[in-house]
Amino acid sequence: MTKNDILILKTDGYSSAGDGVARHDGRVVFVRRALSGETVEARILKVSSGAVFAKTERVLEASPERLVPACPHFGRCGGCDFLHMTYAEELRSKRRRVSDALRRIGGVDISVPEAAPSPATEGYRNKAIFEAGRSADGRAATGFYRERSHELIALETCLIQSSASLRAAAAVREWMDGCNIPAGLVRYVFFREGRGAQTAVVTSNIGLSRTGLPHRETLIALLRERVPETAGILQIVNGSAGNVALDGDIRLLYGSEYLEDELGGLTFRLSPRSFYQVNRAQAEGLYAEVLRLAALTEKDTALDLYCGAGTITLALAKSAGHVYGAEIVPDAVVNARENAALNGVTNAEFRLGDAGSAAEALARSGVFPGVITVDPPRKGLAPGVIDAIARLRPRRVVYVSCDPATLARDARLFAGRGYLASEVSVFDMFPRCAHVETVLLLTAGEPYPEL
């Protein structure tokens, strides 16, 4: 097989990215936009030593689960992955992805239940980060990059973003055009909503005058008019060459630098850099499951690693005697401490630092939590963190993951340290996107024989 070859393929599953999986001459072929069980005519895009990558040119035998995508940007913008299939098929594919990863990567033989569907599959995102730039005709544009590129796909509508976020982006574009804002000054538009809404214009430091953001009063007026629920407007000056959107100095233009929201009966104050689940309604169910699996009593001490603004930590504090939260992002730790005070929680303590160091510091101080929860980024846990957790000898570890592959890898490492996967739940936190959230309970036991 070589690039641009045309093959007739029959798919029988999905990859982690939601592509159809087929086999040809003993090779695995990942077919973009093919559904499981379909026969397609596919063009080879790339041949590597491990796999072959192709795209669907024509569907010869369509799955009954195939849909005509409801968004004109689908397949160009990198926002969604599953608009070409029914939601039921999407949920099945996500459950299978978790099950396959745990079995093949983690060596975990465990029953995986059906994925919990999201209460809403459209307009569910409470947070957006739009790339900003100029279209070919020179007008202001906001949107997302084309898949695997830095080409901006300008859009004015989006099925999964909230109406308020789209109105905020439109207001920023109007300001950019109406006030002749220099090209390259605005890099991103950040938006988050809860009790009210917050918009941040992320700018470079090139072209900024000594007086700050040009025509700032016009921007403020437009945002307050187009997004009446506005509680705060910010500028983030990001002069770095990297792609960390919210890196840089935060300057308050209007209202409050913080946004408040309610989750699980608790109030949370959030800064732009604080982690917070983007699907609030589904997060309620996710955190309820974490509490159930934690099975805390008032005699328990718990540790929440990667605690962010303290959402899980403060939920645990309702049932535990004392809870520690650890987070490496300074702004998030400040928010977490404020959130504890805001909710009158006195049995939660937050520490700034990486997960492994926080766990080791507790051990040195003679604190050995009975339950540890972790909610790491997509890359999962470093082996040193797993070692530090194991040295604390909790009876339960509740692992919240947004990547089944790294979760499965870490489950295998935990097994080698005496912690076995005993229960799993799957939550569709990101409808129409390939990502899936999983909660895995690990309990103290004997290592797997092969480890």
Polypeptide structure, described:
- There is one protein chain.
- The chain has 451 residues and is an alpha/beta fold.
- The chain has three domains: 1-66, Nucleic acid-binding proteins (OB fold (Dihydrolipoamide Acetyltransferase, E2P)); 96-119 and 279-444, Rossmann fold (3-Layer(aba) Sandwich), CATH 3.40.50.150; 127-257, OB fold (Dihydrolipoamide Acetyltransferase, E2P) (Beta Barrel), CATH 2.40.50.
- The protein has helices spanning 87-104, 163-178, 216-226, 280-294, 311-317, 330-342, 355-364, 383-392, 404-415, and strands at residues 6-14, 20-24, 27-32, 39-47, 52-61, 127-134, 140-145, 152-154, 186-194, 196-203, 230-237, 249-255, 259-263, 266-270, 301-305, 322-327, 348-352, 371-374, 396-401, 419-427, 437-444.
- A seven-stranded mixed beta sheet has the order 8-7-6-9-10-11-12. Strands 17-16-15-18-19-21-20 form a seven-stranded mixed beta sheet, with helices on both faces. A five-stranded mixed beta barrel has the order 1-2-3-5-4.
- Helix 1 packs parallel to helix 9 (404-415).
- It is globular and about 65 Å long.
- The two termini are 38 Å apart.
- The model is unreliable at 447-451 (pLDDT under 50).
List the helices and strands and how they pair.
Elements lengths: L5 E9 L5 E5 L2 E6 L6 E9 L4 E10 L25 H18 L22 E8 L5 E6 L6 E3 L8 H16 L7 E9 L1 E8 L12 H11 L3 E8 L11 E7 L3 E5 L2 E5 L9 H15 L6 E5 L5 H7 L4 E6 L2 H13 L5 E5 L2 H10 L6 E4 L8 H10 L3 E6 L2 H12 L3 E9 L9 E8 L7
Parallel strand pairs: 3-5, 10-11, 15-16, 15-18, 16-17, 18-19
Antiparallel strand pairs: 1-2, 1-4, 2-3, 4-5, 6-7, 6-9, 7-8, 9-10, 11-12, 13-14, 19-21, 20-21
Helix pairs in contact: 1-9, 2-3, 7-8
